[in-house]
Amino acid sequence: MVEHNFHQQSHSFVKLVIFLCLLFLSANISVEARIRHYEWEVKYEYKSPDCFKKLSISINGKTPGPTIVAQQGDTIVVEVKNSLLTENLAIHWHGIRQIGTPWADGTEGVTQCPIVPGDTFAYKFVVDRAGTYLYHAHYGMQRQAGLQGMIRVSLPDGVLEPFSYDHDKSILLTDWYHKSTYEQATGLASLPFSWVGEPQSILIHGRGRFNCSIPSIDPTLCNATNPQCTPYSMTVVSGKTYMLRIGSLTALSALSFEIEGHNMTVVEADGHYVEPFVVKNLFIYSGETYSVLIKADQDPTRNYWASTKVVSRNSTTPNGLGIFNYYPNHPRRYPPTVPPPGPRWDDVTPRMAQSVAIKSHKDFIHAPPLTSDRVIVMLNTQNRVNGYVRWSVNNVSFNMPHTPYLIALKHNLLHTFEQTPPPDNYDHKNYDIFNIAPNVNATTSNSIYRLKFNTTVDIILQNANTMNLNNSETHPWHLHGHDFWVMGYGNGKFNQSIDPKNYNFVNPIMKNTIPVHPYGWTALRFRADNPGVWAFHCHIESHFFMGMGVVFEEGIEKVGKLPTSIMGCGESKRFLRP
After folding, report:
1. pTM higher than 0.85, yes or no?
2. Under a CB-based contact definition with an 8 Å cutoff, are residues 451 and 475 in contact?
3. Membrane spanning segments where (predicted)?
4. Quick check: 374 and 451 in contact, CB under 8 A?
5. pLDDT greater than 80 at residue 339
6. Contact, 194 vs 188, CB < 8 A?
7. What is the largest CA-CA distance in the chain?
8. Which of 17, 68, 74, 110 is spaced 20 to 30 Å from 388 by Cα?
9. What is the 3-class SS of 428-481, one letter each residue?
10. What is the pLDDT of residues 345-392, one digit of tens each?
């Protein structure tokens, strides 16, 4: 009997040990790849980020929204409740490739139907690579109403970056308009055309300062003492080195960012390590992220200006100012100096020089394919369509369909968009990029590029003159679902027989957003290896609204069963059972 009890106890003990081992293993697994759950309520609130009171889109009361903090390999779940009352909604996770989850990309009209007022939609995706990324609205022109924020993904435990620092900080740069997105969108889509104009303010992490003393400004709307527009202040300790993650989600403006008296060492761009180089000011375009190292090595008895200036446009927007605060000085103590004026707005040379200087870190080079299977040259032009001002690629201005492409292609609803593919080139022999086109008329289409799966595709972004004399704008182009190799930049017209011979095959950086400079070209290469449907567009909000974008399809047959949560609009209504 005693022996029998002993065997029973031993058996129970073994089961307990096995249970504890399994519990330990599962705990370790969950630590390695956690699920990070967020619940967001998106709604309009009155905010005064630059002292001027206006309706802003907030997430859980914050503009910009909360920073998503995760570790490489984590799964992010964001439950978004649309409390905008009268507006649809979609949120794009900018720089996250959505491998295996193309329906979570958050691009209304491309990968999902919008989230209607009152509904809750769950985005679920894996952050598969460390780095600095962004999120923002991708419906209409909502982004510039404040729905935006940052994503910070750290390396796995025990893995170190190829540089050292003491502290890690993030900063988001945006521009800010006082007119509503409705007013702006209506002006862009009207006859006569009404341009959005230059932004009223530049915000440094959601804070700026508009001049409330202008006589025409309603004093009940503008209050210079409002704590919401207290300048952004970053506190540092003398002798310490800081990694500053800088993202730009401007609606229009290309920016130059600098910290008075301090150099910055660029170490990361769009989630990829850069062969370090030093800059006095960092040029950053909408949709880009950079990490820079800054050492607090100046006189610690005072504070210094952080300054952001609009470049590439002859802007009336005053520089955005913040405070680089040396502890223990008061964080709101103004520096004793005049803020740095920043570079000349029309000097393209240093901007091109920075673009060319960004190379892949020598220990983290991803070699590009040596040849490509397809070359698509994209002429960027401003045009008219039936009198309306539009932006075009190869004389075709993009319109979004009513049924999202991902659903239409997966369920063979090909009649919901035009099937004639967009052009792969333009008349480069005869087109004069330096002058206004003799015929500025273009056409519209919602057709897409069908890419053969796993092939290598080259994109040549070719800039040109707008419909204004001696004017060519900077366009930051963003590719969803991929990173691309930056093969080269050039001035003037791309020569398809000569310029590819000078591509950088040694150490090209990989990015997801890249500028094409005035009267210049930018060459990209990517692998069409992520099954889904992906937007590629100018990241200037009004330009994409006016047709400056394209869509790529690749490997649609490899996409898994689509969740019904992305359906409900256009012809996808049939897949929702009553």
Report:
1. yes
2. no
3. 12-31
4. yes
5. yes
6. yes
7. 104
8. 110
9. CCCCCCCCCCCCCECEEECCCEEECCCCEEEEEEECCCCCCCCCCCCEEEEECC
10. 999 999 999 999 999 999 999 999 999 999 999 999 999 999 999 999
